TrEMBL record, chain A:
<dbReference type="InterPro" id="IPR009078">
    <property type="entry name" value="Ferritin-like_SF"/>
</dbReference>
<dbReference type="InterPro" id="IPR052703">
    <property type="entry name" value="Aromatic_CoA_ox/epox"/>
</dbReference>
<dbReference type="InterPro" id="IPR007814">
    <property type="entry name" value="PaaA_PaaC"/>
</dbReference>
<dbReference type="GO" id="GO:0005829">
    <property type="term" value="C:cytosol"/>
</dbReference>
<dbReference type="Pfam" id="PF05138">
    <property type="entry name" value="PaaA_PaaC"/>
</dbReference>
<dbReference type="GO" id="GO:0010124">
    <property type="term" value="P:phenylacetate catabolic process"/>
</dbReference>
<dbReference type="InterPro" id="IPR011882">
    <property type="entry name" value="PaaC"/>
</dbReference>
<protein>
    <submittedName>
        <fullName>Phenylacetic acid degradation protein</fullName>
    </submittedName>
</protein>
<dbReference type="InterPro" id="IPR012347">
    <property type="entry name" value="Ferritin-like"/>
</dbReference>
Automatic annotation (TrEMBL), chain B:
<dbReference type="InterPro" id="IPR056572">
    <property type="entry name" value="Zn_ribbon_PaaD"/>
</dbReference>
<dbReference type="InterPro" id="IPR011883">
    <property type="entry name" value="PaaD-like"/>
</dbReference>
<dbReference type="Pfam" id="PF01883">
    <property type="entry name" value="FeS_assembly_P"/>
</dbReference>
<feature type="domain" description="PaaD zinc beta ribbon">
    <location>
        <begin position="116"/>
        <end position="165"/>
    </location>
</feature>
<feature type="domain" description="MIP18 family-like">
    <location>
        <begin position="14"/>
        <end position="74"/>
    </location>
</feature>
<protein>
    <submittedName>
        <fullName>Phenylacetate-CoA oxygenase subunit PaaJ</fullName>
    </submittedName>
</protein>
<dbReference type="Pfam" id="PF23451">
    <property type="entry name" value="Zn_ribbon_PaaD"/>
</dbReference>
<dbReference type="InterPro" id="IPR002744">
    <property type="entry name" value="MIP18-like"/>
</dbReference>
<dbReference type="InterPro" id="IPR052339">
    <property type="entry name" value="Fe-S_Maturation_MIP18"/>
</dbReference>
Amino acid sequence: MSIANIQVPETPLVLYALRRADDALILGHRLSEWCGHAPMLEEDMALSNIALDLIGQARELYSYAAKAEGKDNDEDKFAYLRDVRQYRNLLLVEQPNGDFAQTLVRQFFYSAFADLYWRAMMASRDATLAAIAAKSEKESAYHLRHSAEWIIRLGDGTDESHARAQAAIDHLWAFTGEMFAVDDSERGLIDAGVAIDPAGLRDRWLKTVTGIINEATLALPQNDWMQQGGRSGRHSEHLGHLLSELQSMQRTFPGLTW
Amino acid sequence: MVTALDSDAELRQRAWDAAAGVVDPEIPVLTIADLGVLRDVALDGDQIEVLISPTYSGCPAMNMIALEIELALERAGFHRPKVRTVLSPAWTTDWMSEEGRQKLRAYGIAPPQASSSRRALFGEQAVTCPQCGSGNTELLSEFGSTSCKALWRCKACREPFDYFKCH
């Protein structure tokens, strides 16, 4: 038995909302994998709370995508009934948790971006997106502070924690460029004042990231080559495994409700 | 019972009073009016609509609060009341009433401070212990038992306590 995927006509606005919703959902899901497994109780609660914020953001964005689409899709169908190639999230957020350092470096790179991005998006001409941005930027400020403190503690900690943090930075760096990329679909929204151009945030992002990495006695790679693909559905092998867990109930028991 | 003799203003006031008594399921000393979550009450014909602002995007208490509002309005004689969530302007702890802050402190949770310091990446925060009133406190964890709280410890009385983060 197979459950049909929903079909989504990706108008620029629908695609835009799905991309940001997918970022938040996938990263939220990754963080929720730590629930019950984090190195200490405080971090277990912190990562679960950040996951909760992100999944809340995803719900708002999915609901808006459904409204913009005007079909009978809703937040649950977008989350549970699209396959890997229909997901539009950044490659960065789907990367496995790895060790604690890898989780926190991934969170730091993303939160430093999300914080700037949502603050800028508060000026969107789209009232709903501006409202979602206003809520999200408050939350991302705390997410950034949490992860930045950990980067410093890990980098400037023991030899072991330093080596692990540096390895995580080296591994994840190539996935950061995608955050600032824009395609034709999104360019139209930027020109219309609905979206903002993320490329304009890169210098400030790099300044924040460099400042914390330096304070942590860590180093950014010199490698400028960046891997892309998530925004158009070309994902790493990890996303399929994540979705198989995230979607298993709806795929096994179609239409299941609480 | 709601009768046709009631004026619109009276109906709205009665609906507001009913909704305002709903408490936060996770901090039961605070009502949604204390929190600033209850924003407005609108009357459309004979149907009442209550507008609320979510605290955090993923706050699981919001669904329960919406349900409790509907039940409270039904009990007050309003049939099929609606609850609508408004995102803009975004909820802020600045909307928390002074009475709400005092109730929080008496309950053992340090109330939120002015939101101006939130932006600082590593801003110095000074939170007063709700138990003994000492300012000699330290942050244990940025995230506490719920999204809206952080975990602190008082170095004077040695008691850990929740701090309702400014937002």
